[in-house]
Amino acid sequence: MEASVIICDYAQVNNGKMYIVGAAGNLLVTQQAEAPHALNAWAAILVAVPWHSHNQAHKLVVSLVDEDGHKIPLAHALPGAKVSPEDEGSVVGQFNAGRSPVMQAGDETVMPMAVPLQLQVPKLGGYRVMLEIDGTEIASARFRVVFPPSLGMPLAS
Length: 157
What we know:
The chain is mainly beta. The chain has a single domain, classed as Immunoglobulin-like. It has strands at 2-14, 17-23, 27-29, 37-38, 41-49, 58-66, 71-72, 91-95, 109-117, 120-121, 125-133, 136-146. Strands 3, 6, 7, 8, 11 and 12 form a six-stranded mixed sheet that branches. Strands 2-1-5-9 form a four-stranded antiparallel sheet, with no helix packed on it. It has a two-stranded antiparallel sheet with strand order 4-10. It is globular and about 55 Å long.
């Protein structure tokens, strides 16, 4: 499988199409000088499911890690849900892409997803949204969380 992850201001999936606003950001500005630093972004994800991977169960995992490899929780398990330790804090799902009657042999299915990144991170610096399918990392997007003075920008008054 192939996939793309894009950091953006907002993403939404409607009727199988992805709508993205403010795409391709790699600097996220926080207004808080002290940790934790609030983020308000989205990960727009497109997964291309090849012909031979249709009609099979697949596991998808979206995780956020800092530049030191520490996982930052994106989600919390529902009460009573059993979550494996390696999936804790990640967005986890299963999917099974069926073949449409209009598909031709060799066609792929494009599966869009929008994952909110409305959370707090413990420090300024680099982060990476990682996408794994069936235990293999297939895409990621890097970004850096910065405070305005570090960019030579004045704080809003």
